[in-house]
Amino acid sequence: EIASINVAINRLAKQGVGFGKGLVLVRPGVYAESVRVTQNCHIVGLGPPDKVIIEAPGWESALVSAGLGGRFVPSLLGWESLTSGEDACVENITFRCRNESMRGRCVYIVMGRLLLLRCRVDGGVVVSGSCTKPMLVCCSIRGSRGSGVRLTDHCRARLYENKVAHHGQHGVLVDRQAVPEVVRNA
Question: What is the pLDDT of residue 18?
């Protein structure tokens, strides 16, 4: 039993799991926190996704994946095998922001190859950066004031079989030389 999801992710680092993939199981409930994926782990919501809810409390995104680039650190520092969230997986969780102004960036992915699988996002997803190649599979993304999914700044996101609907602007916005793969989305 651990107090928060972030504490569980950080505990993986202390246990030396940062070089592999640890498992974080999230029980049904509402978690008032902004989850920062800093380890290569598999975060799984137990039960229906609408019963496992991460709700960002303030001016933050509910989920931020910003792998620290361990695989890009020069080998002369001896860190070539270090990983820090670049290859994490988040599955079966609902993400939302309490602050209505943050709904456009409810999930923010700025580096790495996060797999977002069967999640529900009540707001928007922003993917940015040339070292960013996440995969969103079978997710429901809805209710952003702006674009549902914004792919920008050379990112190479892959979107498969997602439902992207009920947004104030675009369903999927591709700009600033992003090169996505978008397949069978509704």
Answer: 47
Return the half-sphere exposure (C-beta side, CA atoms, 13 A cut-off) of residue 47.
Answer: 10
121-140 per-residue burial string, b: 16 or more CB within 10 A, e: under 16: bbbbbbbbbebbbbebbebb
Contact 122, 103 (CB under 8 A): yes
What's the token pair of residue 109?
A: 């992915």
Give 74's pLDDT tier (boundaries 50, 70, 90). Answer: very low
Q: If you write DSSP's letter for every residue of 31-59 in order, what string do you get? A: E-S-EEE-SSEEEEE-S-GGGEEEEE-SS
* pLDDT for residue 73 is more than 70: no
What Å distances lie between residue 183 and 29, 91, 104, 161, 163, CA to CA? Answer: 32, 19, 22, 6, 11
**What pLDDT, on a 0 to 100 scale, did the predictor assign at position 93?**
98
Sequence-separated (6 or more) residues with CB below 8 Å from residue 31: 4, 5, 53, 54, 55
Place of tokens 């972030």: 6
Q: Is 153 exposed, middle or buried (0-12, 13-18, 19+ CB in 10 A)?
A: middle
Separation between Cα atoms, residue 53 and residue 78, nearest integer Å: 39
